Amino acid sequence: MPCALLLVLMLVGAAWVASPAAAAGSPQHHGGLKDRFRPKIVGEPRVAVALRATRGVWTRPRPFVYKYSWFRCAAGGTKCSPIAGAAGPLYTPSTLDVGRSLRVIVTARNAAGSARAATRPTGAVLATPPAVTSSPTVSGTAQDGQPLTAGPGSWSGTQPINYSYQWQRCGSTGANCTPIAGATTTTYTPGSTDVGSSVEVTITASNMANSATASSAPTAPVRALPGVVALWHMDETSGTTMFDSVGSHNGVLHSTQIGLPGFAGSAYGFNGSSSYVDAPSTADLNPGSNNITFTIHFKSSGTAPPPPADWDIFRKGLYTTRGGEWKMEFQQTGQASCGFKGTGGYAELVAGPAINDGQWHTISCVKTSTAIEVVVDGQVFSKAANVGSITNSTDVAIGARPGSDWYQGQLDEASIQIG
């Protein structure tokens, strides 16, 4: 009988087929077409999960030698073809088997001859979804400006497995995590908005079967850059205290709206007539003769009054204050300005694009020993100046002078860096 015809006969439901040379003493499959006597495939038809074929029940004198041949079939058990190398009672499905069914032909042989019997087809082979076996990791130093790198951990499941990344900003103890917008690659560099928070990464592993997620352990709280003496996230949603995340410079809110959508987290709203924040003066908020950089995030669509009036954003001291001043203001032109008065005199710079467009902008004022700078969204505008040393005992004011030059809009993420 031709091999192709024999295979067809075996896989259309015959319980046994004897070889042409089978004699009276050759093996016979017991019980005809009764399923309880058939060879069977035991186990779940799933990629990477081993299956076992039973030999069924056979009659006639022993010894018998059994041979197993595994076949990959269309769903339902038709159009079968042999699986190369699958010649034992055990077989572990691969990705080639996904969506297909499997059958086994058992050949029983003794000295007198041989016969064959086929199993019923399995259901469609399923892929194994990903499952984490060791958690994702984060390597690097948790500090403003220092990159962190994610490792996916280890996963079981049907290959190929693809990984996607989402970095999370969490509380200092690792609780209350929220996704960081745009942080979806294997690396993330914390910024000032992360200072005082911990960071973790969530990995989503996906394959043809499904997807699963797992998160790393949180990092230690992110440290500020060297020289940052105060950082106010302005994320409070209750109370009247503005908390400093790196020091003890807590401020007091006056008629200030809290919990507004911010540049990062929440922001404060200022009404242009009575809102401001006051943080008590301490020695480390004075630059002396050192460099100073103070930064804030700004959002407004308003227009300041004409000079000599303006809107005050962030300052310590006044022009008339003993020991000098440093300040950031918003002018009628829509531009930011930075001013400094010290032992060497006064210098001011109005520069940059108009920023009263209702979008968030990042503004920094910088004093060095030779220049002052206005920095708007990373663009630097500079003016040569030597204002000398600045040291005063005046509180830090945000959002007003106070008492005049009231700001109208939102502010977020204020910081002071000295040195």
Name the descriptors.
rod-shaped, 1 helix, disordered N terminus, 8-stranded antiparallel beta sheet, Immunoglobulin-like, Jelly Rolls, 419 residues, single chain
Topology:
Blueprint: H1 3-11, E1 17-18, E2 28-29, E3 41-42, E4 51-53, E5 58-59, E6 65-73, E7 81-82, E8 90-91, E9 101-110, E10 113-118, E11 131-134, E12 137-139, E13 148-151, E14 154-156, E15 162-170, E16 178-179, E17 187-188, E18 198-206, E19 211-215, E20 228-232, E21 241-242, E22 251-254, E23 257-261, E24 266-271, E25 276-279, E26 292-299, E27 311-316, E28 325-330, E29 336-342, E30 345-351, E31 361-367, E32 371-376, E33 379-384, E34 396-398, E35 408-418
Antiparallel strand pairs: 1-10, 2-5, 3-4, 4-8, 6-7, 6-9, 9-10, 11-14, 12-13, 13-17, 15-16, 15-18, 18-19, 20-35, 21-22, 22-25, 23-24, 24-35, 25-34, 26-31, 26-35, 27-28, 27-34, 28-29, 29-30, 31-32, 32-33
